[in-house]
């Protein structure tokens, strides 16, 4: 199981580093800060589900919403913005940023609804 988690985490890192983050837009120190403060706070499975919902037609589960809310809005906004700034995606950036905000609002609402009082 640990090996599978490592493989999934490696895949997410590969997706973010190679496909999603244009190297010319982010300095190495910024990437390390983003990694240290954001990416490691969320499971690879949930990261993929969130990316899938923002950039495709995936659906984020309630447990993944809880992880996203714990990760924080600043991390969510920053990561999605870096992905949306990719040259192949920039033409639809406003659509992706709108979906980013919708995912955040949904996750906050479901996280509050299922939180113990």
UniProtKB/TrEMBL annotation:
<dbReference type="InterPro" id="IPR008502">
    <property type="entry name" value="Prolamin-like"/>
</dbReference>
<protein>
    <recommendedName>
        <fullName>Prolamin-like domain-containing protein</fullName>
    </recommendedName>
</protein>
<feature type="signal peptide">
    <location>
        <begin position="1"/>
        <end position="25"/>
    </location>
</feature>
<feature type="domain" description="Prolamin-like">
    <location>
        <begin position="37"/>
        <end position="108"/>
    </location>
</feature>
<dbReference type="Pfam" id="PF05617">
    <property type="entry name" value="Prolamin_like"/>
</dbReference>
<keyword id="KW-0732">Signal</keyword>
């Amino acid at each position: 199981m640990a090996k599978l988690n490592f493989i999934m985490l490696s895949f997410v890192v590969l997706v973010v580093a190679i496909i999603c983050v244009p190297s010319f837009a982010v300095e190495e120190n910024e990437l390390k800060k983003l990694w240290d403060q954001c990416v490691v706070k969320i499971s690879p499975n949930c990261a993929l589900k969130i990316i899938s919902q923002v950039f495709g037609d995936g659906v984020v589960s309630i447990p993944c919403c809880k992880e996203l809310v714990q990760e924080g809005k600043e991390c969510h906004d920053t990561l999605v913005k870096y992905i949306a700034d990719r040259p192949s995606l920039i033409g639809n950036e406003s659509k992706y940023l709108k979906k980013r905000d919708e995912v955040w609002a949904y996750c906050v609402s479901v996280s509050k609804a299922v939180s113990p009082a």
